Amino acid sequence: MPFCICGSACMRWTKVWEFKGKHMRTNRFFKVFKIALMVVAASAVFGFIIQHLWNWLMPSILGLHAITFWQAIGLFILSKILFGGFHRHGPRGRWGRQMNERWAQMSPEEREKFRSGMRGWRGCRPGREGMPASSQTSA
What pTM, to 2 d.p., does this model score? Predict the structure, then answer.
């Protein structure tokens, strides 16, 4: 996916990016909608599981009364707050810590080499297909 900072060679790609910007906003809406739908579905499933487990076990074990679906949802939310929290799971936090540790161990020369390598990903690179010949430079 080319992304150029070199002026006239990128006129064609700016039109593509304008189209992708509109398309990406639409995709973001659908992605948020799908996530919200999954959260609602998962909450419903957990609510029914909690309700049925409670109504099956607690009246016979402790003599407690049966609960409704909404009470089960409330119990699920209360248990998440008290015991689990609503933090993000996954490698994102671990990756950030690893990058910070690697950055701290780098010498200033290594940091500059890393920065210059990352700059190459944003500029025009020679030999990209679809780029005019006048903008391609020999390596």
Answer: 0.46
